[in-house]
Amino acid sequence: MKSKQPMIVLVLMILIVALAATSQANEFRRTFLLEAGGRYEVSVRIKTDLQDAPTLASVYIHNEHGQYLRSTQLSRSLAGPNQWQHISTIVTAPPGAQKATVVFTAAEGVQMEWDEFNIRRVELDLADEELIRKGLVYTGLIVDARGLNLQRGMSPKVYSESGQLVYAGVAVSYGFLQEAGIASYGQELTPDLLRRIQPDDTIKVSPLVVNALKIDGTTESSVIISDADAQSILDALNTYDFLAHYSVVFLID
């Protein structure tokens, strides 16, 4: 859901590499500072020498002592060959976060060219904050995988039909993994299960429900959803990044 009010954007840093000085490799990496609780959009303009080349955008977040906190990943295919395309991902800095490293990676053997790397802090306007408080935005993701024999897993993933990685249960702290896990499981949406996707007691629970089309992975703990549902998830994250808080529930048999 997107607010009709304009989003207030505070530009923290913009690094632009001139077209005449673009760089080439199969990996692009930058480290930047951030503030705990802040939301950042990280983007870069990329082209490759291969049609529909798969790329992976990963953001690794650390505290002031360099201790790893968590990561966010987004996988997609680039148009091409040799067509410029913007790739971006949204990062929400958890408590204690001080810096992040963003890595855009192409498949082995694929040459990647980039420029126009941007980092900007994104602030919600008052209208968006009010929408969250009134429960008019999604606070979490419900994946209905009943009837597919989905298995519980430590690192379940959600993919789109076209192969885009929408959610990856990776890089959580050991303590959080042991205490809460990166997703919850249940047969029905009980009040206890819904609390998984409630940010706090003052915010109404508003789940985005999608249906799993089939299971995926050797452990049969990951799912594939439709491209339309994947896009709905990504659109919802523009207002509130519930995936950054691991607000995910799988309904299973």
In short:
With 253 residues, the protein is mostly beta strands. The chain is 11% helix and 44% strand.
Walk me through this protein's architecture.
This protein has 253 residues and is mainly beta. It is built from four helices and 17 strands. It has two domains: 8-123, Jelly Rolls (Sandwich), CATH 2.60.120.260; 127-251, no CATH class. The chain has helices at residues 126-133, 174-179, 191-194, 227-237; strands spanning 8-15, 23-25, 27-33, 39-48, 53-63, 68-78, 85-92, 97-106, 112-123, 140-144, 157-160, 165-168, 184-186, 207-211, 214-216, 222-225, 248-251. Strands 1, 2, 4, 7 and 9 form a five-stranded antiparallel sheet that branches. It has a four-stranded antiparallel sheet with strand order 3-8-5-6, with no helix packed on it. Strand 11 and strand 12 form a beta hairpin. The longest helix has 11 residues, at 227-237.
State the separation between the terminal residues, measured CA to CA. Answer: 30 Å
Low-confidence stretches: 1-23
**Structural class label:** mainly beta
> What percentage of residues falls in helices of 4 or more residues?
10-25%
Strands, total number: 17
How do the helices and strands follow one another from N- to C-terminus?
Answer: EEEEEEEEEHEEEHEHEEEHE
> β content, as a range?
35-45%
Radius of gyration (CA) equals: 18 Å
Topology:
Blueprint: E1 8-15, E2 23-25, E3 27-33, E4 39-48, E5 53-63, E6 68-78, E7 85-92, E8 97-106, E9 112-123, H1 126-133, E10 140-144, E11 157-160, E12 165-168, H2 174-179, E13 184-186, H3 191-194, E14 207-211, E15 214-216, E16 222-225, H4 227-237, E17 248-251
Parallel strand pairs: 10-14, 10-17, 11-16, 13-17
Antiparallel strand pairs: 1-9, 2-9, 3-8, 4-7, 4-9, 5-6, 5-8, 11-12, 15-16
